[in-house]
Design a protein that fits this description.
3 domains; 15 helices; about 30% helix
Length: about 450
């Protein structure tokens, strides 16, 4: 079946029978959306589960950056080659300008060096008068073969503790986006981690972390992975360039509270379904609960939505515009938030929308309008059918903004074709592994060998 973009517009000159057939196929594609139903085979993604884990403390899952656990992890990757290194003469040049970097010193026992020189495997005279030589000097790299893996790791661990700040610039802080509505760091409010997953698309990853006692059901996890897969596909992988972490927080978290003023001037602390930071997304565990499990909201939001009704629109009944596509439901709320992040801000500003948003929430501002269109496109069925054709085409242009060719087809902004997402459950019984911000980019480092007198 072709994609919606591959179908001709209804305004094109087609025969009447052909026009009817195209319209029927177009409506079928619009109605289908991008949701995958529970009884369908997984398409475009794979989920790998581990044995069930009991919740663990946040402290054990996320050790302090300067902890021995993090030093050991860094040293192991530094030495075994799983961490790409760019070995230079002076790593501190970049460090002083705010770049990540690391400086290591490896001690070489004099007896080993002497034996290697006598055997002819390493040249004599490498060390200067102070007993030092840089790895970048001719022949000096071979000195590394005189040290064991453990000796190198111990040396790296020792220097890691001195250079934590510089090294951590290279890695993602999974808790960075946990903030209150007024921007205060609220990571200390987290108590447990109940589950964690890494979703990867190529070399990049999004980490899904659940800090609630309300675990994801199998179906909710499947929905989440498919929503990420869908938005990654539409953005040609751009979602994974922008988003690093999705957190699920208890609905009573201070991060999910925002002061709002009611129409009568009263100020209340209203609960949020979620919020987004530049590289992070937080969602309330309220979305995972059934309507019977949810505590009543302290705020009646009806008036906030109804003020966006147009004069001719009914205030109640089946013809009243819906409040939002998601209706506070997990999968479509996530799709809405991912659309916020996946569509480039420049495209949102440059491509106009005409008419009025089909949902009341979409009428708050253009950003919410666009995210609601993204959620409707993902949902299909009535939500998608309610989107006017010109708005559907504008959304398509936004998705295509960075994917298209600006040089008549010679090159394309992003790799074309469908994406494939792999979701792997993490063993939360161990500290969660560190993730580089830019996989494949090497950590700039310099290595100095020091000649050590034998004891």
């Amino acid at each position: 079946m072709p994609t919606l973009e591959q179908l001709p517009n209804t305004e094109q000159q087609l025969g009447e029978a052909e026009q009817i057939a195209w319209n029927a196929l177009r409506r079928q594609l619009i109605e289908r959306g991008d949701r995958q139903l529970p009884d369908e085979p997984d398409q475009g993604y794979r989920i790998e589960r581990t044995e069930a884990h009991e919740p663990v403390s946040v402290e054990s899952a996320f050790p302090a950056k300067d902890s021995d656990e993090r030093a050991t992890e860094f040293a192991r990757h530094y030495v075994d080659g799983t961490l790409p290194l760019n070995i230079v003469e002076d790593a501190w040049k970049g460090v002083q300008s705010g770049e990540p970097g690391f400086v290591a010193y490896f001690g070489v026992p004099a007896s080993r060096y002497k034996a290697a020189v006598e055997s002819g495997s390493i040249p004599d005279g490498l060390f200067d008068t102070t007993g030092k030589v840089m790895h970048t000097e001719p022949g000096a790299s071979e000195l590394g073969t005189l040290l064991t893996q453990d000796e190198k790791e111990q040396a790296v661990e020792a220097y890691y503790h001195k250079e934590v700040k510089q090294v951590q610039r290279y890695y993602i802080d999974d808790l960075e986006g946990v903030k209150t509505a007024n921007g205060l760091d609220a990571r200390d409010t987290l108590q447990i981690l109940s589950e964690g997953y890494d979703l990867t698309d190529g070399g990049k990853s999004i980490r899904l972390l659940n800090f609630s006692t309300q675990k994801l059901s199998e179906e909710q996890l499947r929905q989440a992975v498919n929503a990420v897969r869908s938005i990654s596909d539409k953005s040609a992988g751009g979602l994974f360039d922008q988003l690093r972490t999705i957190t699920i927080l208890p609905e009573d978290s201070p991060c999910l509270r925002q002061e709002v003023t009611l129409l009568d001037g009263t100020k209340v602390n209203a609960p949020l379904n979620g919020f987004k930071e530049p590289n992070a997304l937080a969602l309330s565990d309220r979305l995972l609960k059934t309507s019977e499990e949810r505590t009543p909201s302290p705020v009646n939001t009806g008036a906030f939505f109804d003020k966006h009704l147009l004069p001719h629109e009914p205030t109640e009944g089946p013809n009243k515009p819906p409040k939002k596509v998601s209706d506070n439901e997990w999968e479509l709320t996530l799709a809405h938030e991912l659309a916020h992040i996946g569509i480039p801000e420049e495209a949102q500003k440059m491509i106009p929308l005409t008419g009025v948003a089909p949902t009341l929430y979409g009428r708050w501002n253009k950003a919410e309008w666009i995210a609601e269109l993204g959620a409707a496109e993902y949902a299909g069925e009535d939500a998608a059918i309610a989107v006017p054709q010109d708005q559907r085409e504008a959304l398509s242009a936004m998705w295509q903004y960075e994917k298209g060719s600006k040089d008549e087809g010679v090159t394309y902004g992003r790799e074309q074709g469908p994406r494939y997402v792999v979701c792997r459950e993490l063993d939360i019984a161990k500290p969660l592994p560190m993730r580089p911000k830019n996989p494949g980019h090497a950590l700039v480092t310099d290595i100095t060998y020091r000649l050590l007198p034998d004891a």
